[in-house]
Design a protein that fits this description.
454 residues, alpha/beta, Leucine-rich repeat, LRR (right-handed beta-alpha superhelix), twelve-stranded parallel β-sheet, globular, F-box containing protein-like protein, LRR_dom_sf
Length: 454
């Protein structure tokens, strides 16, 4: 599989185009997969991407020598099975930027035409680019025309919004035909397009093993998903797992998430929440209530939980509710092996308790040092005290002895050397909160693509 990475250098455009076209013509017969890395905010990158895709869509021989039935046989992309776009960041241009929007219209059409020439596709990922995902219906229609719908194994139609303030819900009308995708085993969608009917349709895909869901600032008129729909799909597809990503989701929308997703038989495997937005005074109670319900309803399936927020003002939401909801989650969820919490204050007692409950089964256990509050719990004999009224000090401000004693106390049950994430090792994006989408865009894409063989 080839990976093509665009950058902002400006080579001789004419020579570049000729050499690239010649390269694709010579190598196309061996090309079965391609991943494009590009900057979605660079017009040069987008134009180059369009040119490459057009070259892939061309034919080895003159098109006038072929009839319509034979054109795809000689297309440069005839053996393509894996097609993936990975933006290096999120598109942050305003939707009113007509020049840029016309560029993406051209990119959408180039991709649609490429799909019209590909008969062997098994994996399609559109990089969670909102501007491309809005054309999902035209892509799905093309898959039916070429017969690819019977071969596709991985189809990623979820999105990550570049403009998190001006939110336009996604619409895909052709989802009612998804049951005809007989080989599909991994599907990614936005919560916007999911409802009880769609879940019922997905239950008819016998091969489906993984469903990834992105939740944004969804339409407040969303009909929700009935708990019976999840009960039914789990019965029909016992091997199904769900990955759930909350992206800038507002706390006043948590209830529909609880009712439609968390407090159901949905087989949740991975839960990630990035930059949750709290609008209520009792936001601590709201967050902890959601995590409490999650830990009860998903105790048999949950394997990983990630909470990430800005570090410029760590939240104390997880400290003020007793018992600590993360401790209860570690106690209930017997398959939990990955826990990452960034941007939320956590005490030494709580972290040690989590480590003791999960032990060496915790393959990854991440907390930043600047969010850890140390108390006077270690005596000169390194004994863990149960005193509850000590004053707290930030880990980074504590003396080396206290830091080492705390690290040792966590390392012991994990049976490996453990230390918190140093503040200077945390990406500046998380610290400052500038363009927060960049924090999770690449992570979510890599998680999706890792489940697909290519």
């Amino acid at each position: 599989m080839k990976s093509i990475r665009n950058d902002n250098r400006k080579p001789n455009r004419k020579n570049f185009n000729e050499q690239l076209k010649l390269f694709i013509q010579k190598c196309s017969r061996f090309l079965n997969g391609i991943t494009f890395y590009f900057d979605p905010n660079s017009s040069h990158n987008v134009l180059d991407l369009i040119k490459i895709i057009k070259f892939l869509s061309e034919n080895e021989v003159a098109i006038y020598e072929l009839n319509d039935n034979r054109q795809n046989i000689y297309a440069n992309c005839r053996n393509l099975k894996y097609f993936s776009i990975i933006p290096v960041t999120t598109l942050v241009r305003c939707a009113s930027d007509q020049r840029f929007m016309s560029l993406y219209s051209g990119l959408t059409e180039a991709i649609r035409f490429l799909f019209s020439k590909c008969n062997q596709l098994e994996h399609v990922s559109l990089g969670d680019l909102h501007e491309l995902i809005h054309s999902s219906d035209s892509f799905l229609a093309q898959f039916f025309k070429t017969g690819v719908h019977q071969k596709l194994q991985c189809l990623h139609l979820s999105s990550i919004k570049g403009d998190i303030v001006r939110y336009v819900p996604q619409r895909i009308t052709m989802l009612e035909h998804l049951e005809k995708f007989h080989s599909l085993n991994h599907l990614s969608l936005d919560f916007d397009v999911l409802n009880t009917k769609v879940i019922s349709i997905l239950s008819k895909i016998d091969t489906l093993q993984l469903l990834s869901i992105n939740v944004h600032r969804f339409n407040r008129n969303h009909p929700g998903i009935s708990s019976t729909a999840w009960s039914r799909i789990v019965t029909i597809l016992p091997n199904l797992s769900v990955n759930l990503n909350l992206l800038h989701t507002e706390s006043n929308n948590f209830q529909i998430i609880i009712d439609s997703l968390l407090n159901t038989e949905m087989p949740l495997k991975h839960f990630k929440a990035y930059y949750l937005e709290f609008k209520d005074e009792n936001s601590s109670t709201i967050l902890c209530n959601m995590l409490e319900i999650l830990s009860r309803a998903q105790m048999n399936t949950l394997e990983s939980l990630t909470l990430i927020d800005h570090l410029n003002s760590p939240k104390n939401h997880l400290k003020v509710v007793t018992p600590n909801v993360l401790i209860m989650l570690c106690w209930r969820c017997r398959n939990l092996n990955n826990l990452t919490v960034i941007g939320y204050e956590t005490t030494d007692r709580d972290i040690i308790a989590m480590a003791r409950l999960r032990g060496e089964s915790l393959q990854s256990f991440h907390f930043p040092s600047c969010c850890i509050q140390l108390s006077e719990i270690f005596t000169k004999y390194n004994y863990y005290s149960s005193i509850s009224n000590e004053s707290f000090i930030n880990f980074d401000m504590a003396n080396p002895y206290s830091q080492r004693s705390f690290r040792d106390a966590v390392s012991l049950p994990l049976k490996r050397n453990w230390q918190p994430i140093p503040t200077n090792k945390i990406p500046e994006i998380i610290v400052t909160g500038f363009l927060p989408q960049t924090t999770y865009h690449r992570t979510i894409l890599e998680q999706k693509n890792s489940h697909c063989i290519h």
